[in-house]
Fold this sequence. Notes:
Blueprint: H1 3-11, H2 13-46, H3 48-51, E1 54-56, E2 62-64, H4 65-118
Antiparallel strand pairs: 1-2
Helix pairs in contact: 2-4
Pfam family, one: DUF485
Keywords: Membrane, Transmembrane, Transmembrane helix
InterPro entries: DUF485, Inner_membrane_assoc
Amino acid sequence: MDKKLVDAIYNSEDFHKLTRTRSRFAMRLTVALLVAYGIFLFCIAFFPDFFAIPIPFLTHQIIPIGIAYAIGVICFAFFLTALYVHRANQDFDSLNQEIRASFLAQKALLDKEKQEGKQP
């Protein structure tokens, strides 16, 4: 790609809007997962007896709260990943395609002008 075109893309307001929005969303999801995992570690460190409390299930098997919470944190991570992928496919990809299309159109005009300038 032409360096002028790359610089134009990096300096465009739409590109900055896309990167800001995507970064802000990713940071929110990251903080949500870190909070869930932090609570897990906090409870293990300071309330180990709480995580040892058994939860009876219908099959008469007993699973401690800690195991159930750990499985919940893992499922929450999968949910957050699916949420990011959904938002990326729905919003971020469309913004990316708009930015790309507008700058490729500008590049085509510049290439056309260059070709016309070279002809006698």
